[in-house]
Specification:
single chain, 384 residues, 5 helices
């Protein structure tokens, strides 16, 4: 990621001429093109010499670089200062754009402070960060594939220009165009299980997601189905801690939709490691949103168990000791059946299921959970 460009120099005999901005003549353009040919994705600033056309700076003219223009905080309007193309050979630049006005940035004067700053130098790191996210999901992508993904998901994908290029990229749209999104797994202990979870999303219907574990270095991988959360795109499998035998295991995940399959890690020769009772949460994920399991050893319970009539849901949590089908019935205080939910059969593990209480009046309610070979009971109260 480069927020530095060259056009004029102290020694004027070394100044670049507009005719030099053809994508391959200046030294910095040659350097960027060489880096990209070796597999490096290069992102650079368009420059702050706008609003006239032909004000792009080098290496923003380079054939292989992703050149970034700047927009206002509305995400649409070009910043007046953002340099415009085209290159001297009439080819389009910049490539894409991002916010370049009032961008929250680290302060150069205050080591723990933040400022609002302007410039294509501020827009460029936003696209660089986007590229890093793309490569974290699809590490096999080549630099030209990354660049064209940004084109396809840009706000001006069908009408690019020499001011903002293909526009503001919609990163999620671009990733879904590429295939199944399968995120870095996370893991944490919950009750007597080790939970392994990953985000899985696709533009097609997800058919199944499976976790494969090799215990005690056996080399044989056992398959565990991963189940989707009722409220997010997180898929999880709960593995009994006793299976680990106090030893780490090697693992990989495979997700399949109607069009393709995706493995994590992508390289079929690599695996990730899980240790029993390990808590490993990737940066940016709020653990409080994951731990929807109350601090209790009970096998069936509701939280919060006391709610107000303005609340719409309570969470039913039940621990399956073995593979089982599940029927959830809600009764009022005089034994009338109010609703019934039939859940698909699931393997051993923990289920967290939201119960819709938005239409229930104040009172005490009883929940009866029918499992394959047992019945569990719990209750909750709706107050004023």
């Amino acid at each position: 990621s480069s927020s530095l460009g060259y056009f004029n120099f102290d020694s004027t005999d070394e100044d670049s001429d507009y005719n030099d901005l053809n994508g391959k003549t200046t030294i910095v353009a040659q350097a960027v093109n060489a880096a990209v040919s070796r597999g490096v994705v290069c992102v650079t600033a368009a420059g702050n010499n706008g609003p006239l056309s032909g004000t792009i700076i080098s290496p923003g003219d380079a054939d292989s670089v992703i050149t970034v223009g700047a927009v206002l905080t509305d995400g649409v309007t070009p910043a007046k200062f953002t340099s415009r193309g085209p290159r001297s050979d009439s080819k389009r630049k910049p490539d894409v754009a991002a916010q370049g006005v009032q961008v929250i940035s680290a302060s150069a004067q205050n080591p723990i402070g933040y400022i609002e700053a302007n410039g294509t130098s501020l827009a460029t790191p936003l696209i660089s960060g986007s590229v890093a996210l793309i490569l974290s999901v699809f590490p096999e992508m080549k630099p030209y594939e990354v660049r064209h993904m940004l084109y396809k998901c840009g706000s001006q994908s069908t009408s690019p220009d020499d001011t903002l290029g293909y526009g503001i990229p919609d990163l999620l749209k671009g990733l879904l165009l590429q295939g199944i999104i399968l995120t870095t797994p996370l893991t944490y202990p919950v009750l007597n299980y080790q939970r392994i979870s990953a985000g899985v999303k696709s533009s097609a219907n997800i058919k199944n997601v499976h976790l494969y574990l090799s215990f005690a270095g056996s080399g044989n991988y056992l398959q565990y189905p991963m189940y989707k959360s009722f409220s997010t795109d997180i898929f999880s499998a709960d593995v009994p801690l006793q299976r680990f035998g106090f030893q780490s295991v090697f693992a990989y995940i495979i997700a399949e939709d109607n069009k393709s399959t995706r493995r994590y890690p992508y390289d079929s020769t690599k695996y990730f490691e899980i240790n029993p009772n390990e808590k490993r949460i990737p940066c940016g994920i709020d653990f409080a949103e994951l731990t929807d399991i109350a601090k209790t050893s009970g096998t069936t319970y509701i939280y919060p168990s006391i709610v107000s009539r303005n609340d719409k849901y309570v969470n039913l949590v039940l621990q399956l000791k073995k593979k089982s089908s599940t029927i959830i019935n809600i009764f009022n205080s005089i034994g009338q059946l109010l609703s019934s939910v039939d859940l698909p059969e699931r393997e051993e593990g923990i289920i967290s299921f939201p119960l819709d209480i938005s239409k229930l009046p104040i009172g005490v309610y009883f929940v009866q959970v029918h499992l394959t070979d047992s019945i569990e009971n719990t209750k909750f109260m709706i107050g004023d």
